[in-house]
Amino acid sequence: MDFRTPEVDRLAAEVIPDEFFELSAQDAREVFFADTRMLDGKQLAHNRFRTNPRSLVDHLAEQLELSGTEALLDLGCGNGFVLEHLRPHLAGGSIVGLDIAPGVLRAAEARLKGVATPCRWVEGSADDLSCFADDSFDRVIATYMMHYVPDIDRCLAEVRRVLRPDGKFVLTTDRPDSMVEMYDLHFAILREMRAPERLFKATPKARISILNGHEYVDSHFAGVELRTWQDQLRFADADAFLAFYSAHNYCCAASHPGDLGEDFFRELRERAQTRVQAVIAREGYFALTKFTGSFICS
Questions:
Q1: What is the pLDDT of residues 145-156, one digit of tens each?
Q2: What angle do CA 135, 139, 145 make, to 5 degrees?
Q3: At 184, which helix (H) or strand (E)?
Q4: pLDDT tens profile 184-214
Q5: In the chain, what is the greatest distance between 2 CA atoms, to the nearest angstrom?
Q6: Whole-prediction pTM value?
């Protein structure tokens, strides 16, 4: 399924800035993932409003090629959403979920409580896997989290160390222009509001994206293949889009708000709702085109 069009490519070239937000591991632990609200909102929308009949987890399961007995490590496991859906593929295997944020880690543990597949939950940073022995895992996954890791090269070296010789590492991330329609809307509103220039930045995933990921992984793994995946979210209700937009921290405008204040974000929401409602009235839905992919490393 191909959602790429010349119009989307043109929009991306015009809209996406070269500079991107940098969000620290401390931000991830203490702000964005102190609880599960942001993750829950994103995951719900990605499933409810997708148009690709194959979900991202379907894509991941295909890349992992699980026989059912593997030992799997999930770096940045979050609230356990991905692991919950992969677990039936590991009925005779085992799972370790690692995350830097204790709030979401507790949610993951609760989510998989009672399953027969052995699960272990570890609080820690993905660039320090010293609690795991060499050759401990058949599969390691990192899904939309590598851009938070303080030392990406150290993390990849650690993954290589704990991965068994015939194992596989699947690193999933986005293109910087994924969901460009949301950024186009967002930046247009910021210009109307004469917002500070520091807010006009791309997604933090641009730090390690499917465009530059080879620069990181190729030096650690002998075999690397990029397999892309696309989807388009279609919102026929402006409130549903606003919930999704807010869960993305208003395209990171609220990451370090400084003195912007709640009135700023209230106006941002109101303007976004008006614009999205107009598109829905004209087109029937407001679309967000997703360009993502996984580096399959062995």
A1: 999 999 999 999
A2: 110
A3: helix 180-192
A4: 999 999 999 999 999 999 999 999 999 999 9
A5: 57
A6: 0.95
In whole angstroms, what is the distance from residue 262 CA to residue 244 CA? Answer: 18
Q: Which residues of 180-210 are buried (b: 16+ CB within 10 A; e: fewer)?
A: bbbbebbbebbeeeebeeebbbbbbbbbbbb
Owner of token pair 């075999």: 223
User: pLDDT digits over 36-58, tens only?
Assistant: 999 999 999 999 999 999 999 99
Q: Are 56 and 46 in contact (CB under 8 A)?
A: yes
Which residues, 6 or more positions from 202, have their beta carbon under 8 angstroms from its beta carbon?
16, 17, 18, 19, 20, 21, 176, 183
End-to-end alpha-carbon separation of the chain, Å? 27
Query: Residue 63 in contact with residue 84, Cβ under 8 Å?
Result: no
Q: Which helix (H) or strand (E) holds 245?
A: helix 238-247
**What are the E-state strand segments in 134-238?**
137-143, 163-174, 224-235
Among the listed residues 104, 157, 167, 95, the one whose alpha carbon sits nearest the alpha carbon of residue 126: 157
The owner of tokens 């979920």 is 97
Query: 145 and 97 in contact (C-beta within 8 Å)?
Result: no
Q: Tokens representing 95?
A: 């799972």
Q: What does each C-alpha distance from 229 to 92, 148, 166, 174, 294 come to in angstroms? A: 28, 22, 25, 9, 8
Q: Which amino acid is at 183?
A: Y
- Confidence at residue 28, expressed as pLDDT on a 0 to 100 scale: 87
Work out the angle between the directed axes of helices 261-283 and 238-247 (0-180°, nearest 10): 140
Q: Which residues make Cβ contacts (< 8 Å) with residue 288, sequence separation at least 6?
A: 179, 181, 182, 232, 233, 234, 235
Res 23 pLDDT > 90: no
Length of the chain: 298
Cα–Cα distance between 242 and 222 in angstroms, integer?
43
In 51-175, alpha helices (H): 56-64, 81-86, 102-111, 152-162
User: Can you list the domains of the chain with their CATH numbers?
Assistant: 6-297 (3.40.50.150)
